[in-house]
Amino acid sequence: MNDVVVVGGGVAGLNAALVLARARRRVVVVDGGTPRHAPAAHTHGFLTRDGMSPAALAEAGRAEVARYGVPLIDGRVDHVQADREGAAGFLVRPAGGPVLKARRVLVATGLRDDLPEIPGVRERWGRDLLHCPYCHGYEVRDEPIGVLGTGPGSVHQALLLRQWSDDVVFLPHTSDLADGDRERLTARGIPILDGRVRWLVVDGDRLRGVELAEGRVVPRRAVFVFPRMVPHDALLTGLGCERSADGWVVTDASGRTGVPGVWAAGNVRDPRAQAVTAAGQGAAAAFAINHDLVDEEAERAVEDYRATGTAPHAPHHLPAALR
């Protein structure tokens, strides 16, 4: 019987497993091997890990967790269900593997970025077609930057990027700009280039610009896009976890969902979580899960004590008066 099965081996899941293992809990991590930030060359804003590649960060995290004896299973989890017949709280079913029994489940399966269907976007994603100014803005500081309009968040993204470069242009593409947004962009010195975007111009494996439908090429060193973020939350909703009005599973600050025994951490519950934030959420969830298990164990001990009138023997090394 496992105390906790962690589904998802990114920084949120691995950090949770690390904390739980150090609390001497029996933990298993199951990871599908498709991290959101895999296309990026580096991870930034993570103290002591700034500039490390996502692959190296994952490798270091897995090695740390493995030192505590935590099994790491490679594979997707097809299904999680409450164990209504056995002693386990949950049955976790990895694809092609044995069923794992767990008292608690932590889901850290992340999200996917739904990108606009523009030629070149998927190929350049995480390289010079970017999303997070805090993750990548410094690397393209003072360079010509384009912001592709995909929704209301894109305007704020353009305004934010003016901190990193004086040469930022906004490309509405097919989105409609409100008059107030046009005024704000203009007031900040961000030109608005109306017209549909045809494709990203790439030469020598580097982004060179953005071509509009009219044939005009706007030279750019990097383009930012605010994608639609879709959480990988099927395991959570399948267990009965509720979504809020904005489409994300409802949790408290520790990641506890409305289903007893189920937690969530990282991008599956928080689209804004960077790597360092996700790691912190994994730790917070681990603390909460461990406290929940401690409370359960204390309640069972009290029930047993009341039923039998006996308690576990004190360690033999204690003086007799203390036993």
Short account of what is shown:
This protein is α/β, with parallel strands linked by helices.
Count of strand segments: 16
Terminal Cα span: 30 Å
CATH topology of the largest domain: FAD/NAD(P)-binding domain
Query: What's the architecture of the largest domain in CATH terms?
Result: 3-Layer(bba) Sandwich
Keywords: Flavoprotein, Oxidoreductase
InterPro entries: FAD/NAD-bd_sf, FAD/NAD-binding_dom, Ferredoxin-NADP_redctase_2
Catalytic activity: [thioredoxin]-dithiol + NADP(+) = [thioredoxin]-disulfide + NADPH + H(+)
Protein name: NAD(P)/FAD-dependent oxidoreductase
Textual characterization of the structure:
InterPro entries: FAD/NAD-bd_sf (IPR036188), FAD/NAD-binding_dom (IPR023753), Ferredoxin-NADP_redctase_2 (IPR050097). Residues 3-282 form the FAD/NAD(P)-binding domain. It catalyses: [thioredoxin]-dithiol + NADP(+) = [thioredoxin]-disulfide + NADPH + H(+). By secondary structure, this protein is α/β, with parallel strands linked by helices. The protein folds into two domains: 2-113 and 228-308, 3-Layer(bba) Sandwich (FAD/NAD(P)-binding domain), CATH 3.50.50.60; 116-225, 3-Layer(bba) Sandwich (FAD/NAD(P)-binding domain). Helices cover 28% and strands 23% of the residues. It contains eight helices and 16 strands. Strands 1, 2, 3, 4, 5, 6 and 16 form a seven-stranded mixed β-sheet that branches. The longest helix is centred in the last third of the chain and has 34 residues, at 275-308. It is elongated. The two termini are 30 Å apart.
